[in-house]
Amino acid sequence: MTALIDLKNVNKYYDDYHALRDVNLEIAQGEFFSLLGPSGCGKTTLLRTIAGFEAPSDGSLHIAGANMNGVPANARPTNMVFQSYAIFPHLSVAENVGFGLRKSQLSKSDKIKSVEEALDMVGLNGFGGRAAHALSGGQRQRVALARALILKPKVLLLDEPLSALDKKLREQMQSELRRLQRQVGITFILVTHDQEEALIMSDRVAVMFDGAIAQLADPQTLYKRPRTRKVGDFIGVMNFLPAHVTDPNKITLDVAGLGTVTIAPEQAPSGTSSGAAEIGIRPEMMSILFEGEPDRGEIAEATIQDRAYYGDMTYYDVHLKNVPEPVTISMKNIIGRPVLEVGETTRVSWDARSLVLFAS
Amino acid sequence: MLVQLVGMGAPLAILNTESKKGLALVGAPLGYVVLMLAVPLAAILLISFWTQDFQTFDTTPTLNNYREAVTDPLYRELLFRSIRIAGLVTLVTVLLAFPVAYFISFHVAPERKSLWLFLITIPFWTSYLIRVFLWKVILGFNGVINSGLQTVGIIDEPLTFILYNANAVVITLAHAFAPFAILPIFVALEKIDRSLLEASQDLGENRVSTFFRVTLPLAMPGVVAAVLIVFIPTIGDYVTPRLVGGPDGLMIANMIQVQFLRLNNAPMGATLAVIAMLSVSLIALLFVALNRRFLRGSR
Question: Do A86 and B297 touch (CB under 8 A)?
Fold first, then answer.
């Protein structure tokens, strides 16, 4: 498999600010790829570098085998959906969608037809004659999508396209984008700071911090096996407990509050050495042991410090012996389960397979 | 129908306190405008239908002045020349102002923009009259340009086409009105979302075609505003043609002044003023209609 997009040792400096640090990335044809990270992590800079709006300070970028060094944005096989959508206010919806067709060889009637098809694809048929400023946020987004997809790019770049929409519309557009991507088979690169969005939509996710890729993996690996504490903390919620590796070969460790456990090699970084370390565990990987429910193998005593009732779930902050920070546990509110009060003592249960070891 | 009658019967009673407050606020400026603008305008309009009878007016309403103004080739020539010169001034001013506004909006760092705008207003620090005189010094027979070019040896005889003709009027007015054109165009350019320009490039247009397909159409309201702001006052300008225009650069305002003060024919002057006003209104309306067409698309 040759990569559609191939970045090698890409660096970007703004004066003495290092915006991209040695980015190496291969993205395959037809992939839904996400760049995820907090604001200022360089994800948008990376996207704009691929689009041609920023030139890398050093390193190389190839798209479909062609070196993009010095190739301006208007000559690249990429199209972009901007965060602000960038709908031309002086043009109608149809004129916006057909904007990029000026130089195409299509006849006038074919252009009109392809504009109609593009509007149809994003569920806006019949909107062609509307003025661009008369559209709602969701409709603008669709126009921006149609405008980019009509040119049949090799790569569609999406710069936080859903951040301006309200929650309901955002969820609807997430599944619609996914459907659209499968339908057209074009590589999508999505920039987002919303980890949930990245997990839902992507085939693979690159998590970025401070201009560098911290981890590149599929959503499940990313969630289950974050490579660093920072990644684990950024994706979802994770509890961190101090630990001490006693046997680096069998990977046996003493974990504060949980006691001695042995974990599998894939749960630990390669080359684990003995000494101080840290383990991470997700809230849903631990459970409060209610009367008559099966345990998960390991058990510890705990006191409820705080609780938050979410309707479908209850989140408990529990105190474990020898653990400085409270540990968060999430429990589904199924029939027959009580909601515990602050101060109650209980037992918590977990499975050693759900632990992740981080070198400290 | 009944409701209408009731409403019309008591227009003051239905005025709520809000409207009264509003009336109180606009009352003073409204009175000022009526006194200083509407009354003189009405007077001019009225006098234009009268006839001068030595020291007094013959107040019998007549259209003779209008007939004369339309048929006399001198008046016609002056009016057309005024429109031509004002049009030329507008064209030159806007064409020169656009690059300046574009430069400030797109190539000056945001924190420096207000400094640049401030610098552009520097010519206003001296009086209009003095600036016109300065142009006389620059463009004159022994002026800066001629003596400079002669010293360097580019020309042997002083250039005569730059002073005391229509060219001098255009040069002087274009300079005087430049800031008035730069500012509205600058504002229109500032309002353009920069991501629109990137979107255009992303969709295959280069910088030049992006300018013509995105930047210029979106800047059009500013350009039309600049055209109106420059065109309307220049067509009636009186000082500049008087000082640097020579006989061929005189405009309709100079003739109006001559009619009122030299020939003692106020009705004829009033008639010419009304005709000039109507011409300006007509052309201005045309541009406003044009502007509306451009505004329709944008917010």
Answer: no
